[in-house]
Structures are given as structure tokens and as C-alpha cells.
Amino acid sequence: xxxxxxxxxxxxxxxxxxxxxxxxxxxxxxxxxxxxxxxxxxxxxxxxxxxxxxxxxxxxxxxxxxxxxxxxxxxxxxxxxxxxxxxxxxxxxxxxxxxxxxxxxxxxxxxxxxxxxxxxxxxxxxxxxxx
Length: 131
What we know:
Elements: E1 3-13, E2 16-21, E3 34-35, E4 38-40, H1 47-59, E5 62-75, E6 80-92, E7 102-107, H2 118-127
Parallel strand pairs: 1-6
Antiparallel strand pairs: 1-2, 1-4, 2-3, 2-7, 5-6
């Protein structure tokens, strides 16, 4: 099965973390699931550059990766996802949805209340945020 490299941004402003909800999809495992914003790393692209590009394309936000804070490899029914989460500083902008069903700023203590995509859920478990 194919493995794709994916990056995601943990953008935090004060006590709130930006999360996005995927659009409705025929594939139930990703339809309307919550996740951290991000996307695929293109060939020859550094993961840090990919997370900046993806968040700019999807939400019109300028971010700066600070550090990688977690990585999981997850086997979905049709693809393996190698996902790295970066803690990112918000440099400029207000999020404008272009590719998602919804977005919200959530307190860390409420992250467990969302229906997460499986790979992102594993990252949250690794970080100890789903207690």
C-alpha cells in the first residue's frame, strides 16, 4: 500500500488551538472528521516548508514552524499516512476557510469532544491530550 508524507500545524493563540473539519466525503473514515490543518508534502519539499504552504493555501494564515512535536504512521483502508505535527507560531492573518467544512479555536481541555481523524487522534493520544 502507498505511503504519503503529511504534515500538520498546531497553531496556538493563548489557550486556544486551531482545528479544522474535513468536508463530507464518500470515504467514511475521513468524512467530517476534525484534524489539525495541513496536507501532503510535495516531492523535493522540506516538511517545514510544506506545513507553511498548506496552511497558507487552506486558511490564508502565515505561520512559522517552531518544532516537530509528534509523528505517527497510520494505516487507513486505502493508504498509509506518515503524519508529523509541528508546533507553529501564528505570524499573521485570520483563518479563512477555503477547503474545510468548519473551523474552530478549541481549548486543549475540550479537544477530546471532537470526532478526530484516526491519525490525528493518535497524535493527540501521544501528546496526552485526550485524557
